[in-house]
Amino acid sequence: MKLSKFFAAILLLAVFLAAVIFGNARIYSFGEKFNRVLASVFFTDSVSVEELRMKYISAPFSGNRVKILIVPGHEPNFGGAEYNQLKERDLNLELSQLLAVYLKVDPRFEVIQARDDAGWNSMLTSYFEKNWGSAKKFRDTKRLEMGRLIDVGKVVRISDGVSHSKAPSEVAIRLYAINMWANENDVDVTIHVHLNDYPRRYQKRPGTFSGFSIYIPDSQYSNAKASRAVAESVFSRIAEVTSVSNLPKEDAGIIGDQDLIAVGGQNTSDGVSTLIEYGYIYEPNLQNLEIREITFNSLAKQTSIGLNNFFVGASKVR
Ligand SMILES: [Zn+2]
Questions:
Q1: How far is the CA of 209 from the centre of ligand 1 (A)?
Q2: I want to staple 245 with a disulfide (CB 3.0 to 4.6 A). Which of 53, 170, 213, 293 is the partner?
Q3: Residues 6 or more apart whose Cβ sits within 8 Å of residue 2
Q4: Three-state SS for 232?
Q5: DSSP string, 9-33
Q6: How far is the centre of ligand 1, averaged over its atoms, from the C-alpha of 275 (Å)?
Q7: Cα(24)–Cα(48) distance, rounded to whole angstroms?
Q8: How far does residue 21's CA lie from ligand 1's centre (Å)?
Q9: How far, in Å, CA of 186 to CA of 227, rounded?
């Protein structure tokens, strides 16, 4: 009799422990799913200014640095503007590398470069390989969801923005994959580095437009508010060394865009996302190597100061 009571007690304890373990596991997995659901979902902020500043302030104690992903625009070997001998994709890399040098000075930043002289970052290369199918699915699901919200009138389709040349499908999938990777790896700020151009009759001659601009997510996207705040801080610094674009619509300086995948098109980016067009590829100060180095150095420096200012909550700190 005593023995069976003992076994009963053991059984009860085992049931209790199992309930606790499985219960916790379920709560944990629910928590994980819940986080996922919150990620870049319409009408919910996926990132906030306060949260970013808190992360920056607490980085020395938490060891959790602010992750900044620099993406030199276009593929290592193709795409982007070309003007006489100059290739935008190479210039984007030159400028990105200087930007990385400036940002790395701040120990609170963890700087990741999407590509360098050797091509795509190997972390990304293997991610692309393993997740190509998921990236397509991610694109399709997000497209469907956005289309549905537009149909029921909850999201407004913006179709009168600045027109961009459409990325070929493979390039587009890679950009979605970069957004996925950045989301999964808690990247806080993504900066896409580009130089501008526009279609005109004589593509080998300089165009009429000049100046820089910053593209940010459409205001209806989850990462819009914080992206605008970061962009404003960076904008005010770059504007000290170069002029704002004079292309109609782009002359707003900071432009919300619904379609650019780089800044989270179809609401695909959780973190702050910006795409900086640092100038037009045919501008005189980019044609000569030495003058270009000075120009890029100053643009990279101002961008990094602008980012720092955002994180410390200042607007004009040097
Ligand atoms: Zn470009």
A1: 15
A2: 213
A3: none
A4: helix
A5: HHHHHHHHHHHHHHHHHHHHHHHHH
A6: 9
A7: 29
A8: 52
A9: 15
Distance CA 232, CA 220 (A): 18
Tens of pLDDT, residue by residue over 100-147, are 999 999 999 999 999 999 999 999 999 999 999 999 999 999 999 999
How far apart are the CA of 7 and the centre of ligand 1, in A? 72
Residue carrying structure tokens 């069976």:
4
Q: What tens digit of pLDDT does each residue of 50-90 get?
A: 999 999 999 999 999 999 999 999 999 999 999 999 999 99
User: Tokens in use for 220?
Assistant: 């209806």
67 alpha carbon – ligand 1 mean position (Å): 23
Q: Is 38 left (phi over 0), alpha (psi -120 to 50) or beta?
A: alpha
- What would the two tokens of residue 279 be? 């100038």
**How far is it, in rounded angstroms, from Cα 95 to Cα 300?**
7
φ, ψ of residue 168 in degrees (nearest 5): -60, 155
Work out the angle between the directed axes of helices 169-184 and 122-151 (0-180°, nearest 10): 100
For residue 98, the tally of other CB atoms under 10 A from its CB is: 20
Measured between alpha carbons, how far is 18 from 11 in angstroms, rounded to an integer?
10
Q: Torsion angle of alpha carbons 268, 253, 190, 304, nearest 10°?
A: -170
Dihedral, CA of residue 263, residue 94, residue 110 and residue 129, to nearest 10: 60
